[in-house]
Design brief:
The complex is a heterodimer. By secondary structure, chain A is mainly β. Chain A contains no helices and 11 strands. In chain A, the strands form 2 sheets. In chain A, strands 2, 4, 5, 9, 10 and 11 form a 6-stranded mixed β-sheet that branches. In chain A, strands 1-3-8-7-6 form a 5-stranded antiparallel β-sheet, with no helix packed on it. The chains are: A mainly beta, B mainly beta.
Chain lengths: 109, 117
């Protein structure tokens, strides 16, 4: 069974800092990997989707990388802003979607 | 356009009560998923529909959980004889593509927060 782990569980940084969120998974036979953002009381918003054949995806200040062979993905957030405060979830897809427990990010003004 | 909607947003039930949670997916989306998210955890897969067919129900935790999507659009997740451990947020997601090996993304609703007392 696919196990997805996210480190750290929580992170607090001052505004403007660059940061990296980590995701690891045990079964490398995946179709794709997604990073989601979840705000309190809200559903999930997809940030980046990386296909198994890709190494990275970028959207604005966000960059996600995928190393399938080692079972790892990172989400890099540049120049963090208070509005980035949320829980970030990593999900891997090998016929069904398995989520990590998330990293709760707080960006302090 | 309209996203995925879920109702009710909050539900308080007494232990032993039956509940029904509704999901309205994005119009035309083929795939529909239900997830259960416990406090401080990521969502856990419950079940998957492709149109009206329930193709995967491997994540349903017990036979008290039942889901349907009779016309291939709106879906209902029913929980019979609720227990305290059923307290969680129930998320619905839809996708325009079929699930297997999909390159598409899932669009999530806001969830229904269920509290069983």
């Amino acid at each position: 069974k696919q196990e997805v782990t996210q480190i750290p569980a929580a992170l607090s940084v001052p505004e403007g800092e660059n940061l990296v969120l980590n995701c690891s998974f045990t079964d490398s036979a995946i179709y794709n990997l997604q990073w989601f953002r979840q705000d309190p009381g809200k559903g999930l918003t997809s940030l980046l989707l990386i296909q198994s054949s890709q190494r990275e995806q970028t959207s604005g200040r966000l960059n996600a990388s995928l190393d399938k062979s080692s079972g790892r993905s990172t989400l890099y957030i540049a120049a963090s802003q208070p509005g980035d405060s949320a829980t970030y979830l990593c999900a891997v897809n090998n016929n069904d979607m398995r989520f990590g427990a998330g990293t709760r990010l707080t960006v302090k003004p | 356009g309209a996203g995925v909607s879920q109702s009710p947003r909050y539900k308080v039930a007494k232990r032993g009560q039956d509940v029904a949670l509704r999901c309205d997916p994005i119009s035309g989306h083929v795939s529909l998923f239900w997830y259960q998210q416990a406090l401080g955890q990521g969502p856990e897969f419950l079940t998957y529909f492709q149109n009206e067919a329930q193709l995967d129900k491997s994540g349903l935790p017990s036979d008290r959980f039942f889901a349907e999507r009779p016309e291939g659009s709106v879906s209902t997740l029913k929980i019979q004889r609720t227990q305290q451990e059923d307290s969680a947020v129930y998320l619905c997601a839809s996708s325009p593509t079929v699930a297997s090996g999909t390159i598409g993304t899932q669009y999530f609703g806001p969830g229904t927060r269920l509290l069983v007392l």
